[in-house]
Amino acid sequence: MPNNSALRLVLGVESSCDETGVALVEHGDAGVPRLLSHALHSQTEMHQAYGGVVPELASRDHIRRVLPLARHVLDEAGKALDELDVVAYTRGPGLAGALLVGAGVACALGAALDRPVIGVHHLEGHLLSPFLSADPPEFPFVALLVSGGHTQLMQVDGVGRYTLLGETIDDAAGEAFDKSAKLMGLPYPGGPALARLAQAGDPKAYKLPRPLLHSGDLDFSFAGLKTAVLVQSRKLLQEAGLTQFSELPVQRQADLAASTEAAIVEVLVRKALAAVMRSGLQRLVVAGGVGANRSLRAGLDQACAKRGVRVHYPELHLCTDNGAMIALAAAMRLQGNPSLPQRHYAFDVKPRWPLS
Ligand code: KG4
Ligand code: ZN
């Protein structure tokens, strides 16, 4: 809860991929900012027919959703548009057209209201999102960032002070979930569907590779896993004389899903713990869509408890993309540097943008 009288109100807009998120956060000079309201529209259903995100459709849908969502969060918080102090938006990384929608709307609002506008790094939003949880972390910590496009280990010494410790050299963990799920004929986005199927399966049923587990560094590689899943699935189909994964006995399907999840989770848990041990820190923060995975949370809870490491997660509904994390990141930046925002509205977006 902000602890001073000069509270500031930040509107955050997220539109980097297939979720339109808008939120209102209030903050003082210190303390954890407070989430007043947030609203989200997921495009999952629209993209499902294509098996993945169609960028042009994503951009057009963001255009349709963003202003109604902004109106909704203002109404829900009982705030008027001219009470806003700052407008924040996701500047990158993400789909260029989708990012431009959020950037355009945020800058237009800023210009119309004569308020400063801040472009936020999407991964910084994920990274700081556990600060909105009931058990917020304290700096410094090691962060395991596991989203659809990124798998990174970071040392976080404060807002804007990020050191990359390791990252994936090919696919992200989210991609490994999504691509394996696609092979199993599960609907997009595959991660949650694969995790659901895995619940009834035996994680030890099939031996799948744990890439780079013993590499001695903090990098990841998940591209080979989907090939191993494909080979195992073909073997099962051949043995059963079938052609479709969905025709296999449900137990076999669940076993392969559970074995895939276990391979991804084991690598993430071991590398995250190795990063914490190397850093000499006692705190781990998990962020990004894959952070919603229950098996990953259980694995990390157990490994961290054994070594006396505190682990923090975002609230489940704030693991995947949302506007709250963007408003929060802007608010936390402002707390560290009140002179930061400028009133110029010539915006650009950064589809590729390293965080560190
Ligand atoms: O952070 P996010 O919403 O979007 C990006 O910034 O990329 O992450 C989306 C990723 C997708 O790969 C999705 O399948 C995965 O997070 N995901 C999950 C779960 N929920 C979302 N993966 C495994 N288990 C889940 N429960
Ligand atoms: Zn994300």
3D architecture notes:
With 356 residues, the protein is α/β, with parallel strands linked by helices. The protein has two domains: 4-129 and 319-336, ATPase, nucleotide binding domain (Nucleotidyltransferase, domain 5, 2-Layer Sandwich), CATH 3.30.420.40; 138-313, ATPase, nucleotide binding domain (Nucleotidyltransferase, domain 5), CATH 3.30.420.40. The protein contains ten helices and ten strands. The strands form two sheets. A five-stranded mixed β-sheet has the order 3-2-1-4-5, sandwiched between helices. Strands 8-7-6-9-10 form a five-stranded mixed β-sheet, sandwiched between helices. Strand 2 (19-27) and strand 3 (34-42) form a beta hairpin. It is globular and about 65 Å long. The two termini are 29 Å apart. Residues 1-5 have low confidence and may be disordered. The protein binds 5'-O-[(R)-(carboxyoxy)(hydroxy)phosphoryl]adenosine and zinc ion. Residues 122, 126, 147, 288, 321 line the site of zinc ion.
Global shape: globular
State which percent range the strand residues make up: 15-25%
**What is the straight-line distance between the termini?**
29 Å
Query: What is the CATH first-level class name of the largest domain?
Result: Alpha Beta
Helix content: 40-55%
> Can you summarize the main beta sheet?
5 strands, mixed
Helix/strand-derived category reads alpha/beta
Query: Mean of the pLDDT scores?
Result: 95
Write out the strand line-up for the largest beta sheet, numbering strands in chain order: 3-2-1-4-5
The CATH superfamily of the largest domain is known as ATPase, nucleotide binding domain
Number of strands: 10
Our Rg estimate from Cα atoms comes to: 21 Å
Give the low-confidence spans.
Answer: 1-5
Assembly type of the chains comes to: single chain
The domain tally reads 2
List the ions, cofactors and other small molecules found in this model. 5'-O-[(R)-(carboxyoxy)(hydroxy)phosphoryl]adenosine, zinc ion
How many DSSP H or I helices? 10
Secondary-structure arrangement, i.e. CATH architecture of the largest domain:
2-Layer Sandwich
**H/E element order:** EEEHHEHEHEEEHHHHEHEH
